């Protein structure tokens, strides 16, 4: 078993009279002579030493099964990647207004502006930075909506082809055929039904 400084190990076989099965220790130092120093007990205040053979016999790597589940979220790295792969055009209007046009990787266009009162105080680079921040915030908003919509569809069974209708308002007897049509399904009478083809497609 490869052991490094800071690793946590769990006791699999009782060690003398001071470590019972299930106890957890922390590796403090792995010496060049092969001796492994460790800490245990409340606050890991007690110390001990073992060799590699004893480690293999009495311990195994500790796996934390209570790790926090990461909830769906939009990350800064994700937004930065979108910004990096977008196209920007910067223009100055009336000698005091910066206009930045951004085309996202999927083709959607965002336009932001920043202006000052006096042309003497105008700096295009400063205006562009302000616009870039506004565009990044807008992307956060758009991507947040998209994630929320995806989660809603996942929860309500309206993912992909929307081929399962759970709404009692839908009167379509041949649902698969109905949902494969364009946006003029005559059989689904409730336009507000989230599983209506007019809504989903």
Q: How is this structure best summarized?
A:
By secondary structure, the chain is an alpha+beta fold. The chain has helices at residues 52-58, 76-84, 124-156, 175-179, 197-200, and strands at 8-11, 24-30, 36-40, 46-50, 59-61, 87-93, 97-103, 109-115. Mean pLDDT is 81; it is low at 164-169 and 174-201.
Structural class comes to alpha+beta
Query: H/E order of the elements?
Result: EEEEHEHEEEHHH
Strand content: 15-25%
Biggest pleated sheet:
5 strands, antiparallel
Mean pLDDT: 81
Helicity range? 25-40%
Q: How would you write the strand order of the largest sheet?
A: 4-3-2-1-5
Model regions low in confidence, pLDDT < 50 over at least 5 residues = 164-169, 174-201
| Radius of gyration, taken over Cα atoms and rounded to an integer in Å | 30 Å
Task: Count the E strands.
Answer: 8
What does this structure look like?
- The chain is an alpha+beta fold.
- Among the domains are: 54 residues; 81 residues, no CATH class.
- The chain contains 5 helices and 8 strands, in the order ββββαβαβββααα.
- The strands form 2 sheets. Strands 4-3-2-1-5 form a 5-stranded antiparallel beta sheet.
- β2 and β3 form a beta hairpin.
- The protein is elongated.
- The two termini are 55 Å apart.
- The relative contact order is 0.08.
Secondary structure elements and pairings:
Layout: E1 8-11, E2 24-30, E3 36-40, E4 46-50, H1 52-58, E5 59-61, H2 76-84, E6 87-93, E7 97-103, E8 109-115, H3 124-156, H4 175-179, H5 197-200
Antiparallel strand pairs: 1-2, 1-5, 2-3, 3-4, 6-7, 7-8
